[in-house]
Specification:
Length: 253
């Protein structure tokens, strides 16, 4: 067992992963989302696709624990449950497709998905309709498939909520609840498919500590009141997501 920890600490690119995890933790604590979009482009340049997914899931499962109580208090629990059910139905299909994807292809898919989402968000489009149970369930299913295939459960759900007219504290809380639940389901799915890899899991758990601390700092920076709060909430997330996507381009491998 000590050998696995030595191998984890000797992993090439560990410094890049640590730096990325710290940035991702700040964003996740502040915005409620973004850690997967920040970590996966970089992780996919260091690890193979399945190992990158295991690493992300273990880190992202433990790190946000301190900010969950506030999210449970502020979020819309029925919608969070609908999102989780949809994700659970589609996630196994996504994981199956992941196991047939090369590392270079995987890296490009992740990066393109991040840029497409970012471009859509920055247009400023807003959805003024009602978030019906069917719409929320379907969006969760699409997120679950993307989570299994690319490690990014957030894009469809983030697009739906960021484009809505809901208050930013509800958006943030629902995304925190949804993404944490998806991480829990992902561990089970990876285990069932016999894709669980101990080395990236140990690396993920090791870096979950600095990730958790960064989450706390990011949460402390979140101030939902004030006339410019929403503007800064969105801008901060956009800038950091764009920077991470650029860092994770397969061109740097």
């Amino acid at each position: 067992m000590p050998e696995i920890f030595s191998a984890a600490l000797a992993l090439p690119g560990l410094g890049w992963l640590l730096t990325t995890v710290l940035i991702a933790g700040l964003v996740r604590g502040f915005a409620g989302f973004g850690s997967g979009m920040i970590i996966m482009p970089v992780a996919s340049s260091v690890l193979d696709p399945v190992a990158a997914l295991v690493f992300l899931t273990m880190t992202d499962l433990v790190g946000p624990l301190p900010i969950l109580p506030r999210a449970l208090k502020e979020g819309n629990r029925p919608d969070a449950v609908r999102l989780a059910i949809g994700a659970a139905l589609a996630m196994p299909v996504g994981v199956l497709s992941l196991s047939y994807m090369s590392q270079e292809t995987f890296g490009w898919v992740v990066t393109v998905a991040v840029f497409v989402l970012l471009g859509m968000l920055m247009t400023g489009w807003r959805y003024h309709g009602i978030l019906t149970p069917r719409l929320v369930l379907g969006t969760g299913a699409l997120g679950g498939f993307m989570c299994g295939a690319t490690g990014l459960a957030g894009p469809p759900v983030i697009m739906l909520y960021m484009a809505s007219t809901l208050p930013i504290w509800i958006i943030r809380a629902n995304l925190i609840l949804y993404l944490w639940t998806v991480d829990l389901m992902m561990i089970v799915t990876i285990w069932v498919y016999d894709l669980f890899d101990l080395l990236p899991a140990v690396v993920g758990l090791t870096l979950a500590v600095p990730f958790m601390l960064a989450n706390l700092v990011g949460a402390a920076l979140f101030r939902p009141s004030g006339p410019s709060a929403e503007v800064w909430f969105r801008r901060a997330a956009y800038v950091m997501i764009a920077g991470a996507a650029l860092m994770g381009l397969p061109l740097w491998n």
